[in-house]
Amino acid sequence: MRPGEANLAQRLVDLPALAALIRQPAMVMACVANIAMTLSMTGAIFTYFPVYARGVGISTVTIGTLFAWRSIASASGRVPMGPLSARLPAHWTIAAVLLVEAAIDLAISRTTSPAWLTALLILEGIGFGVFLVSGQSAVATAADTSHRGAAVGLFWMAGSFGDLFGPIGLGLIAQTMGVVAVFGTVAIAVAIGAITVAGLGAAASRGFQGAQVVRTTSGHSGR
Fold first, then answer.
1. Residue 150 C-beta-side C-alpha neighbours within 13 Å
2. What is the CATH number of the domain that holds 95?
3. Has residue 31 been placed in a domain?
């Protein structure tokens, strides 16, 4: 390697660009949202919903059917959300989805009816589909074209923190307080995440509008 030439690690990972992305409210908003959603989806829904369902007497076949319906709902919710994501403010959409997710987590622990649990999982699947489209749309707007891949990587890395620490922390709660407490804890955490997302998204929106005003003013003054 010649003096002054970037090594392989520097070429693969642009640390200044990553640092700049992390400081952007829109990027932080998307990462916080993904942590909250992953905590609910991986921690509560995928890990402890089957445990809860078996505990209230629902068969493994029925549980599998519930998740099949959830997958269908999640996939179908992504298609119409594509065009809508360009029209709806991402932070309000994501915050609303997280609040619904929190309500679903709480509602699951309050019912033992297979019909209600099916409806709740279908609603959760639709919400997750909407979240994926809106979240990645927010990430795309947070970075320019050359750094969009890095932004998507940060978004999913944040989700991995929910994957990593969620089941461990929720496992301790389930062991000491019971499975029902898991859903209540997740509901509170996701609701806090929704409030945080709304605040960060509003700050990012104000910053974007301010930048547009500056560019417009500069354009007029240059004429």
1. 18
2. 1.20.1250.20
3. yes
